[in-house]
Amino acid sequence: MKKIIHLDSIEKRFADTVVVPSFSLSIEEGEFLTLLGPSGCGKTTLLRMIAGFEQPTTGEIFLDEKPLKAVPPYQRDMNMVFQQYALFPHMTVEQNILFGLKMKKVNAAEQQKRLEEVLQYVQLTELRKRMPKQLSGGQQQRVAIARAIINNPRVLLLDEPLGALDYQLRKSLQLELKNLQKNLGITFIYVTHDQEEAMAMSDRIAVMNKGRIEQIASPAEIYNSPQTLFVATFIGENNIFRENGTNAAVRPEKIKLYPVDSDKDKHKKLGTIADAVFLGNLRKVFIRLEGQDMTVMAHQYAGDGLDWQVGDQVAIGWAQTDEVILPC
């Protein structure tokens, strides 16, 4: 697949503070790439450098192999969507969406053609005459997205666009955004701290920590084969067993619980159930290990056949293939 954006030895410093240490990254055309990490890890700074709102201290950013250092944001073939929508309150939905095309003096017939297309894409045709204050948060974000895609940018940059929405609405818009990206074929670079959101939407995820990219891979590879302790503990839930100078990461769904008098070959450790949390078809069971200052989490699903209770003594085990050995 063709490379559309390349970051070559990019570094960002504010005074003497290194915010993004030097690294390189290539992004493919038509890809949905998510920059994922905790607050303050540098992901928004990186997005703003790609957009042109910040300049890298060293290194260069390329779009279609052309350097962007001297190209201002409005001349880069990309648009940005923000968490807070940034709509004009005195304009209707369609006026907000058409604003960029009018500034570029695109002819009226082409404006109308593109408007009808994007209104259908974002399901706002019936709301085109409404003002922003008459819209829900999700509808306002659809307007912001429509405004960003109406001029067919090569790249769409999205900075926590669903962060201000409630949980159920976020889930719904995640699917809509992913389908929109696939239908349009536009490269999406998406910033979020929400790992579930990143896993659900992305072709690849770049996990960031303290300005560095710790791992970049598909969601499945990030989850099943983390390369660092940070990735293993930041993405999903994990049990970290520290023994013999190594860290062994085992996901809760891979931990099996057995009666203490069962086949000893299955046992790895013994413990007592300290707590159990009911979550519908799933119970999170917490086991306090014998002789160790450690609590292990295991997932017990409806139909597993064993209803463990707080205070029960159990043995735990897992397949060797289900553990990931990580550097200390």
UniProtKB/TrEMBL annotation:
Keyword Hydrolase attributed: no
Assigned GO CC terms: ATP-binding cassette (ABC) transporter complex
Pfam family, one: TOBE_2
UniProt superkingdom: Bacteria
InterPro entries per record: AAA+_ATPase, ABC_SmlMolc_Importer, ABC_transporter-like_ATP-bd, ABC_transporter-like_CS, Mo/tungstate-bd_C_term_dom, P-loop_NTPase, PotA-like, PotA_ATP-bd
Residue ranges of domain ABC transporter in the record: 5-235
Record's catalysed reaction(s): ATP + H2O + polyamine-[polyamine-binding protein]Side 1 = ADP + phosphate + polyamineSide 2 + [polyamine-binding protein]Side 1
EC number: 7.6.2.11
SMART domains: AAA
Entry keyword set: ATP-binding, Cell membrane, Membrane, Nucleotide-binding, Translocase, Transport
Subunit structure: The complex is composed of two ATP-binding proteins (PotA), two transmembrane proteins (PotB and PotC) and a solute-binding protein (PotD).
Family: Belongs to the ABC transporter superfamily. Spermidine/putrescine importer (TC 3.A.1.11.1) family.
Purpose: Part of the ABC transporter complex PotABCD involved in spermidine/putrescine import. Responsible for energy coupling to the transport system.
PANTHER family found in the cross-reference section: SPERMIDINE/PUTRESCINE IMPORT ATP-BINDING PROTEIN POTA, SPERMIDINE_PUTRESCINE IMPORT ATP-BINDING PROTEIN POTA
NCBIfam families: potA (TIGR01187)
Protein name stated in the entry: Spermidine/putrescine import ATP-binding protein PotA
Species for this entry: Brevibacillus formosus
